[in-house]
Amino acid sequence: MALIAYAIAALIPLLVLYIIYSLDLYRTGTFRYTLLSFLWGSLAFLLASSINRYLIGNGVLERLTVVQFTAPIMEELLKALVLIYLVRRPKFTYFVDGAIYGFAIGIGFAIFENFEYINTASAAALGTAIGRVISTNLIHATASAIIGIAFGLARFHRTAGRGLVIALGFVIGMALHIGFNNLVTRVESGPLLLYAGAVGIAGLLLIAWAIRRGLTEEKVWIEETLGEADRVTTGEAAVVHRLNDLELILAPLAQRFGPHKASQIEAFLTLQARLGIMRKTLDKLQDEKTITAVQTEMDTVREEMDAARQEVGTYAMMYLRSIFPADDSPLWSSLENSISENKSSGKLWGTLESQMSERKATESSQA
Fold it and tell me: What DSSP character marks residue 347?
């Protein structure tokens, strides 16, 4: 039973983290920084656990005071330290990144805390693991994600405003953590799991909603900025604007050119989306050093994008551009209707080719 408890305590939080990470449509949050955040969360737990034991063991504070107030404040401060580094990286774009990195920090912290609780509750290890993964783990992740969001938003403010936004994020994250710890230490054991689970799941949904909202804003940024200045054709930009339909777009391409080519096209389009988002951040950033770093990163992304375009190949690129022309083309509205009508029937590719043939015939007759 202990092994099952350990597996639940580790695998379910990691699965939730993967789901949150997968919400990042434009892949602005890098896997490397997400992993770094997770590892820092684990280290933050070790530091916080040592401090908590010292405070309680040496009679500095009563255990209940530490659990209800001191620990939540100290833990959120420790968990957030790595965000100071991450927010200054040129790859960091918007609060979506902060939410994902913060969530990863909280999950890293929570998993190792799970192990500690399972060790001390061997007789009820399975119940402890299940109870924690649907409640306490999500609170750790949510509180850290809220602070990460604050760091992401503060990036576009001047010094005074930046500090205020970050401070507000800490207040909200700490208040959530303190409120939860007081809840679980005051409510009777009967409805405790129900209340704790409800709060934890509500926190998870809040972060998912915040990420979705951030992605919506980033989509607007892409539509405003992506174009010839970044060596992106109008047809390519039209596809990038609709990355939320990427799976539907790539399905017929995979049938025609193979899954490997479709994967290359996906990587290429994602790079273009990132470039559009980064260009918008240049207009919003206040720190000259950060602006310079982002400009350098944009040059790197352009080089990666050009290399990805070559990997895709001329024929596949021409086909992609011809299928997805600019928004002002009358073909696009027709294609969108066809996508809706044929989404479930699997006949999208044939419909697209038919639309293209009709368009060419019309152009020939007009000529």
Answer: -
